[in-house]
């Protein structure tokens, strides 16, 4: 079973320190009832620094970092064909995922949506 604490917090409206406190409290509440569930914490949308909460999320056992990539809402993709969009995801998103992946496997990463 997986429990997502907050889906797609949007920067700059979602303050990072408030979000991290929310995730800490939510994680603690989940752990009071189950030690085995995955607790999913989302990166803020609309940020350039994708790994901003990577170390924080990785400090929790059973935590998963949820990321979302929305080509759909970025005008630079408007003139691309479907095949070009798919190629972009195949060829360029791997570096995005590498930036949020630790060698020790903590946290796990879940790509929530890929909208093209």
The first-to-last residue Cα distance is: 28 Å
- What is the overall pLDDT average? 84
The radius of gyration over CA amounts to: 15 Å
Number of helices: 3
Q: Any idea what the shape is?
A: elongated
- Indicate the percent of residues in helices: 25-40%
What structural class results from the helix and strand content?
alpha/beta
- How many beta-strand elements? 4
Strand content: 15-25%
Unreliable spans are none
For the report, how would you describe the main beta sheet? 4 strands, parallel
Order of helices and strands: EHEHEHE
Identify the strand order in the major beta sheet. 1-2-3-4
From the structure above, extract its key features.
116 residues; alpha/beta; 4-stranded parallel β-sheet
What does this structure look like?
With 116 residues, this protein is an alpha/beta fold. Helices cover 35% and strands 21% of the residues. It has a four-stranded parallel sheet. The two termini are 28 Å apart.
Quick structural summary:
With 116 residues, the chain is an alpha/beta fold. It has helices at 16-33, 54-58, 82-99, and strands at 2-4, 38-42, 63-70, 108-115.
Q: What secondary-structure arrangement, pairings included, does this model have?
A:
Blueprint: E1 2-4, H1 16-33, E2 38-42, H2 54-58, E3 63-70, H3 82-99, E4 108-115
Parallel strand pairs: 1-2, 2-3, 3-4
């Amino acid at each position: 079973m997986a429990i997502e604490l907050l889906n797609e917090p949007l920067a700059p409206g979602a303050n990072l320190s408030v979000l991290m406190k929310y995730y800490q409290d939510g994680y603690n509440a989940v752990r009071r009832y189950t030690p085995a569930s995955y607790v999913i914490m989302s990166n803020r949308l609309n940020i350039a620094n994708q790994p901003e909460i990577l170390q924080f999320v990785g400090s929790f056992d059973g935590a998963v970092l949820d990321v979302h990539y929305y080509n759909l809402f970025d005008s630079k993709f408007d003139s691309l064909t479907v095949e070009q969009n798919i190629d972009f995801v195949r060829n360029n998103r791997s570096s995005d995922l590498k930036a949020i992946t630790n060698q020790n496997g903590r946290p796990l990463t879940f790509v929530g949506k890929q909208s093209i």
